Amino acid sequence: MSAVQGPDTLDLAERLGDQEIIVCCGSGGVGKTTVSAALGMAIVASQRKRVLVLTVDPARRLATALGLASIGNEPTTIPGARLRRAGLRPRGELVAAMLDMKSQWDMLIERHAPSREVRERILANPFYKGISNAFIGSQDYMAMEALYDLHTGREYDCLVVDTPPTRNALDFLEAPNRISDFVGARLLAWLAGPSRIGWRAVNLAATPFLRMADRLLGGEVLEELAAFVRDVQGMYAGVQQRAKAVYRLLRSRSTAFVVVTTLEPQPFAEAEFFCAKLREYSMPLRAVVVNRVLPDSLRDPAAVVAATTLVDDREVASWMATELDERIAPDVPRRLGEAYLTLHRLAERNAAQVARLGNLGRVPIARLPLADHEVHDIEGLAQLAGWLQGRPD
What we know:
The protein is of the alpha/beta class. The chain is 53% helix and 12% strand.
């Protein structure tokens, strides 16, 4: 891999190093976690900054790559000596953390519950245990909550956020609105209503849904659910205000969105869609990282001429045998030439796709050429950090 833009290298760390928040987003499986960690390392290598990389990756790839047994909700500092052994020369400090959903939900309840009594009642309610899966975008919103808290705390100069893998690009952008809708939804208000007089006082015979729910769950469970819903609704004003503050932060000049993608049809289409939506939402798209791209060397016109000669000239095999003093089968040059020309056509197609992204966002594009193995350790991350600094060595 190397980070290049046309014939010149692109120092993404320098371009983004002054941002207070960098949000790496895109489809699952495109390398967001790796790019997020490497970008954090690149900034630490080039500037005297304290950088936190926050991941929501349940596979814990970041911990493995950094050589840590685990990463939790409490930030963990990566020793400078470990970075130096990996080939990096850090000027700043790298810290990593993994979002803990339960802790973030507890913090959300503690922050927005209107009273201590309500807070303790919600936390003790059995329905609360499954609330994180109750609506789309839960992980996305909790990532934003953590991001907002960390930014407000001013403990770090730069926050690099590895967003959750999404089924849809809009899950992340719409998460604050979705949690506001969840807390204040009409359905929840309707459910909470009967609890004021008791579910048993409702005419179940006239309400088929309530009759079925009463039979399946029992009146006590329904009343417990209604009490929980009513308590959650009391948090609506605070949650709505917080959601607006999160959106203001995401739209601010201190924030940079980086869309990470590959050139496979599904993630590439989602990246195009996401770039367009960022503009529609007035959120700052600062760069696009296209992963696993064939190298520009495959587009060299002189190499294409040479490969064509290998395919067409039947005398090449004997000439090669003489030059190398080795026996060369007659069809070997032709197969080599055909293989190169196939890769050349794929590389040209890659370049055309990348150009489409450039036209969409009018932002720098870092292309990370296809490698023969995945980055799985701190040495690989350090090498990728060098490439993101524009040093493909």
